Amino acid sequence: MNKGRIEAFSDGVIAIIITIMVLELKTPHGETLHALLPLLPVALSYVLSFVYVGIYWNNHHHLFHAVKQVRGSVLWANLHLLFWLSIIPFVTSWMGENHFSQWPVMMYGFVLVMNALAFILLSKALVVQAGPDSTIAKAVGKDRKGKLSLSIYIVSVGLAFVDPRISLALYTLVALIWVIPDRRIERVLLDAEK
Q1: Among residues 122, 115, 101, 116, which one has the least CA distance to residue 168?
Q2: Could you read off the pLDDT of 49-99 as tens digits, one per residue?
Q3: Structural domain boundaries of the chain?
Q4: Rounded CA gap, 17 and 28, in Å?
Q5: 20 to 30 A Cα–Cα from 151, which one of 28, 79, 143, 160?
Q6: Which of 114, 116, 106 is nearest to 167 (CA)?
Q7: Helix axis angle, 102-130 relative to 144-159, nearest 10°?
Q8: ∠ CA(24), CA(6), CA(85), 5° rounding?
Q9: Are 140 and 125 in contact (CB under 8 A)?
């Protein structure tokens, strides 16, 4: 099957996810800058989640750029990822509205764990479909960055019981690691064109 429909559908779902998150930002009651202070946790949660959704969109784009077509297993793996991405607005709102308290921060981390697992499964489905010597297999490689991120998320969920601020710092650290674009796929594609 052509990959165009899965890319268009995924782009649409991700755009809706971002729209839902921004609609959770409420107008402050008051006309001074001081009126913004109570909304700061919600705004910070939004920024972190926007970065995460952007990272997934960017990496999703790179993954599908490295393949020519998809099978049913890839469609289901992609839907699995989109499901977990669609939960991000809920946990973002819950975390921000409750000023980064323990359970919302822990659940935010759980959703990050599930997104990371879903992305790894999608990557593996694409590699299985294309074969072990394919461009996508070479590009994904051992995915150390993905596995490191997953490990940090898992540790962060547990640390939310100790101090949610530690978990938030680690979630932010992983986001910063991924903001620097992952050039593996671009490099492999450029090498394949030579």
Answers
A1: 101
A2: 999 999 999 999 988 988 888 999 999 999 999 999 999 999 999 999 999
A3: 4-193
A4: 23
A5: 79
A6: 106
A7: 160
A8: 30
A9: no
Of residues 119, 65, 85, 70, the one with CA closest to residue 15: 85
Q: 56: how many CB neighbours lie within 10 A of its CB?
A: 23
The residues near 19 (Cβ < 8 Å, ≥ 6 apart) are none
Q: Note the pLDDT tens digit of each residue in 113-159.
A: 999 999 999 999 999 998 988 888 888 888 888 999 999 999 999 99
The answer for residues whose C-beta is within 8 angstroms of residue 61's C-beta and 6 or more apart is: 7
Contacts 24+ apart (CB under 8 A), 163-169: 164/100, 164/101, 164/102, 164/105, 164/106, 165/100, 167/105, 167/106, 167/109, 168/48, 168/100, 168/105
Q: Which candidate, 177, 188, 182, places its Cα nearest to that of 139?
A: 188
> In degrees to the nearest 10, what's the CA dihedral of 105, 106, 111, 116?
110
152 close to 174: Cβ distance less than 8 angstroms: yes
Cα atoms found within 13 Å of the Cα of residue 28, Cβ hemisphere only: 14
